Amino acid sequence: MNSTYPTSARGPADHEVRDQILAAATEHFRHYGYAKTTVSDLAKSIGFSKAYIYKFFESKQAIGEAICATCLRQIETEVSAAVAETDLPPEKLRRMFKAYTEATLRLLFHDRKLYEIAASAATEHWPSVLAYEERIGKLLREVLQAGRQSGDFERKTPLDETATAIYLAMRPYLNPLLLQYSLDYTEDGPTQLSSLVLRSLSP
Amino acid sequence: MNSTYPTSARGPADHEVRDQILAAATEHFRHYGYAKTTVSDLAKSIGFSKAYIYKFFESKQAIGEAICATCLRQIETEVSAAVAETDLPPEKLRRMFKAYTEATLRLLFHDRKLYEIAASAATEHWPSVLAYEERIGKLLREVLQAGRQSGDFERKTPLDETATAIYLAMRPYLNPLLLQYSLDYTEDGPTQLSSLVLRSLSP
């Protein structure tokens, strides 16, 4: 092969270069922000040519998307672990709500510059965000189903109606755009809303 | 009296001048925005001296506060009327939530420039906003009390706990900062959340 780019035989594999670009871009965005950075800035800071970066990512948004997706996966790993800690559906629901809030706060608000990517993602409905929101809905329905089967939750209300309403109640703590205005409530809000939700689910 | 300002005997009463300044300021803010306007701009546009305006309002924020308070009173008049239309506490709760959302949308979002004042007021916790939020809590507790007395609502949960949680569920539709990111949900959200809240209140 006469490629001028490194191949697996002569250099790092594609996924390694991708990871290298993403790690460098994450650092760069942390310091300089997402909005103000161009692909040229990134190329300069990583020491790659712009053309080389474009071989792996078609745009700055594609890089932002990949960083955002990694961050959302991290939140979901924490939430899954929290939900798996208990077999009781009401407790699963409480922990799910609490873990989403805490992980989102830590990953997006601890570092304002990552918040900026998340805010763009949420405002512009990036595919990674839409998929994330769907997975939240799926997890919520699974917990609700488990509670209906165990007899902990009522079964009269259609499952989708229940899941949608609970999602709306949780939204101020899940969506970074709303969470920025809910910071005074993150200590007690999720607990108080979980209790309200659990009262609404009692058979 | 040797005042150089108009007195009730020789000109408009103080409250009339105040209202005149407020009407002109509201119009001015509508067109040019709140943040970018100075008291000098207002004075020029109304045709008063800056000193004369300062006789009635100590700052631009004091003018913004008065406009904001008028707007909040208008929302509350609509909500009170909606709540008074029915004697059934569950229905009062539904109408309260719906009326707050609709009135806030119409008064603050129909006109982006009034939204700007409301957003400053909410971000900076202006006294008019704090008082407004307290009155929302008071109305909510009254409706809850009525429902507990009529037997429509459960009485086990402490009233304040119930009221706080319901307020948190309603917040994305009451607070203009959150409402700007809830516009996709204003059609069905308040109804779905009211139903969830009413399920949580069932005795």
From TrEMBL, chains A, B:
InterPro entries: Homeodomain-like_sf, HTH-type_TetR-like_transc_reg, HTH_TetR, Tet_transcr_reg_TetR-rel_C_sf, TetR_C_27. The keyword DNA-binding applies. Keywords: DNA-binding, Transcription, Transcription regulation. Residues 15-75 form the HTH tetR-type domain. Residues 38-57 bind DNA. The keyword Transcription applies. It holds the Pfam family TetR_N. GO terms for molecular function: DNA-binding transcription factor activity; transcription cis-regulatory region binding. PANTHER family: HTH-TYPE TRANSCRIPTIONAL REGULATOR BETI, HTH-TYPE TRANSCRIPTIONAL REGULATOR RUTR. This is TetR family transcriptional regulator. The lineage of its organism: Bacteria, Pseudomonadati, Pseudomonadota, Betaproteobacteria, Burkholderiales.
